[in-house]
Amino acid sequence: MSLSQGVRVKVPASTANLGPGFDTLGMALSLYSWIEIKASEQTGFHLHGDQMGGLPTDKSNLIYKVAQMVFEEAGQSVPELEISMYSEIPLTRGLGSSASAIVGALAAANALIGSPLPDSKLFDMATNLEKHPDNVGASLFGGIITAVWDGAHADYMRIEPPADLGTLVVIPDFELATSKAREALPAQVSLADAVYNISRSSLMTAALCAGRLDLIRAAMQDRIHQPYRAPLVPGMSRILTEAPDQGALGIALSGAGPTMIAFVDRKDPRVEGQLSTYLMETMKSEGISAACYQLNPVAEGVQLMDDINNKSFLDMIRGEVTS
Ligand SMILES: Nc1ncnc2c1ncn2[C@@H]1O[C@H](COP(=O)(O)OP(=O)(O)OP(=O)(O)O)[C@@H](O)[C@H]1O
Ligand SMILES: N[C@@H](CCO)C(=O)O
């Protein structure tokens, strides 16, 4: 691989927590970012797409900084980079934009120098940057991830998403930074609430492994983060209570929010009509503009794109964009 020829990667968005699995469970979703990096004489950025506004275009950019961490870890030097990025993933909405940027940058930088670092190392580096393994694990490995982090190393299991599982996301038209949504959380929770979450997170994991979509309603409940975050998202408490009677298998705040994610049975005819109308109408009644999309779980995590010589970055992306 020539350094100046560069590499391109495609990395999925993700939803974290799945309700009870705070900082533990994550699932990759069918919304993507694409990143190209090349060695260059001078560092430069080409940020494309509606989601990229306001991101820095100098060496303080997350992609550049993460790429440099890979080179340093591998003992190689590539100081100047030309970086191109196109993203469909909205920033600060709870769909793992920062995790996808981190994972995309790690995978691309590693590939650029001949892939000296194993995935397990990339996962540890990504988790160290995000501080929790849920979104980064899903973007790196795809599917559903259950992971633990000891402050230095992440261990995980990957679960193949059940074939009939789909999602409907309602994305409010305002940003909520993860840092702000974490400030709302208490430093301690009661033993009763810990048991409530451990039991449901365990049931969720087992149900997803076994394809038991009928158990999601009981499993997708939380007492350790959603109640504290609900005041930050108008309509959230009502939606969490009511959506299961409108066609959702279960519903949760996606990551740190403000997006909410309904797990649905893809075969259920209520999803496109009744459930999506209910979600949009409820947000509207709270004075919040929102967008509602069906997204699917995706089995593949970050992928290196082949045959990049024949097409420009943007031409290649145009053939792939899903939203
Ligand atoms: N491509 C990118 N380049 C540089 N910085 C990015 C990029 N994508 C995301 N970020 C940074 O990540 C921030 C968003 O991260 P944050 O954790 O608040 O939300 P999120 O990752 O979208 O949602 P969540 O973690 O709840 O799923 C952005 O404000 C930006 O600073
Ligand atoms: N587990 C994280 C995901 C968001 O990055 C949280 O809920 O804060």
- Spell the H/E element sequence: EEEHEHHHEEEHHHHHEEHEEH
Helix content: 25-40%
Number of helices: 11
Q: How far do the termini sit from each other? A: 31 Å
The whole-number mean of residue pLDDT values reads 95
Q: How would you portray this structure in words?
A:
ATP binds at residues 90-100. Its main location: cytoplasm. This protein has two domains: 7-160 and 298-318, Ribosomal Protein S5, domain 2 (2-Layer Sandwich); 165-295, GHMP kinase, C-terminal domain (Alpha-Beta Plaits, 2-Layer Sandwich), CATH 3.30.70.890. It has 323 residues and is of the alpha+beta class. The chain is built from eleven helices and eleven strands. The strands form two sheets. Strands 1, 2, 3, 4, 5, 6 and 11 form a seven-stranded mixed sheet that branches. Strands 8-9-7-10 form a four-stranded antiparallel sheet. The protein is globular and about 55 Å long. Helix 1 crosses helix 2 and helix 2 crosses helix 4. The protein has helices at 62-74, 97-112, 119-130, 134-141, 178-183, 191-210, 216-219, 226-229, 236-242, 271-285, 313-318, and strands at 7-16, 25-39, 44-48, 81-87, 144-149, 154-159, 165-172, 250-253, 260-265, 290-295, 303-304. The protein binds adenosine-5'-triphosphate (ATP) and L-homoserine. L-homoserine (HSE) binds at residues 16-17, 22-23, 132, 134-135, 178, 181-182, 225, 255-256.
